[in-house]
Records
---
Amino acid sequence: MIVEKLNIGIIIGSVRQGRNAEEVGNWMYDFAVKRGDAEYELVDLAKYKLPFLGEELPAERRDEANNAISAWTDKMASFDGYIFVTPEYNHAVGGALKNALDYLNIQLNNKAAGLVGYGSLGGTRAHENMRLILGELQVADVRTAVTFSLMTDFENMSVFKPADYHTANANTMLEEVLVWSGALKTIRK
């Protein structure tokens, strides 16, 4: 019997200049790919140039915006599950990721997600915020999260040097995402 591997998107959820998200996202992607248990794809939100939902755009920007929205929604629809990499900004998820999620609904329904965060408290408050958003989008978020501290996992709060103990949480989180993604895939078709 041939078992089809699940497609899991690892979403870099920050678009800020000087962000740490790329390093964290790349670490998570490299870690996941080495497991060989799913098809993982790194998706950088910064490449989508999404307008604010409901923003009135000048005529010359509408086609570009519509193309970005279409590319974003199609990409997100293509996955069986997600790992969201998000910093914590002001006790919540960043505005760009929230805006991007607001463009989605049916594309995410009945899928699973894991959370990877970073910040002064490891992004845990952003995770709590994400759990509320994902619940509304009918996404089953898994219990285990990976939380990187700006004080201990980054040198000078900018050079990513994660402690070894994060690998246990990363493995557990990925296992939970795969189990839930596989189970939920059976009810989507």
---
Amino acid sequence: MSQTSQQYDAVITTCRDLFSKKMKDYGSAWRILRLPSLTDQIFIKAQRIRGLQTLAESKVDEGQESEFIGIINYSIMALVQLEKGVVEQPDITLIESLELYDKHVAVTKQLMMDKNHDYGEAWRDMRVSSLTDLILQKLLRVKQIEDNEGKTIVSEGLDANYQDMINYAVFAMIHLNEK
């Protein structure tokens, strides 16, 4: 499992680096996005990945990796929005955004490590296409929870679904990097 932890950290380092660079370019403009807007951005990325996995030809020269990075970063933004709420104007610095990023990654990684222990790293035997489908399923669940105004009866909440999407996307990136 230490290999998984190291691989996880390597994927997150790539994602965090891009997040940091985009924060330098755009600031925290993303802080105005409501959760359904972030969910829709993640959905677009997941749909594009599914298309890349099924189409013989791609017209945009970006592969699955950049889309999985987008899923991870938008999901972390969603977790921040759940914690801090939506604002009308950008309100956090680069340093604060990276602290929030790291905080949510730490919680999400610990969830992964706990589940990984219990499931015996079953994800290693899964296909990237299956991980993509699981992300899409989580997105449909999130959309339903959003339509229910965040209320669930017996199901996990929004945060757990975003965390699962992060972890599935990290697993997919690990698989893609191993090829």
---
Amino acid sequence: MAQMKRTVIVASAMVALTACAPAGYDGANSSAAEPVAVAAAEPSASVEAEASASAEAPVADAPPANVDLTEKLVGKSVARMGKVVTDEKGWILYRFDKDTADPPSSNCVEKCAEVWPPALTDGNPQLSGVSDDKVSSVTRQDGTRQLTIAGWPVYRYIGDKKPGQWKGQAVGGTWFVVQPDGKKNLSCLPTSTPKPVAPPADSGTNDAEGSGYSY
């Protein structure tokens, strides 16, 4: 048992990728390498951090009952993209250039977080192929705790329609597939900068550009 060091639609993003994209642009992971070294992390005290340049958020004792938690981080290699991190269901995870890693801080809130759902945790994720000393969490503005890798908060992308896709790669020039060491994966980039998908219709807007949504 390894203890965590810190707690730290349709898409306009579907631009043509270079030849590095999987057949049918589905991010197929059929040739993915097997993950290694499963380790369960135990919860410890969280590190409070600013979110969206606002006042410090209170530390959450436990996540709300309706919050979906990311129960596992899996580091592995997939065809063409190379090193990635997925959740327990195989969804590719991303990092955001407008966040900070030192100190860890998430600046993706409100509409942004509807398009890029944060990987939330109760402080006890299982780890496979990701070193426990790289994984921590940060307290978000709403009091939930978000997983970080090497200090970088990590997210899913609602433009990915099934596990293994990476349509969020280079969206807005600020979102990138995250590697197990927390660095950006730059091995498979689109030929032009993709735009993000719009927030869900029930969020009150369905037009990314018209709403001023720019992340």
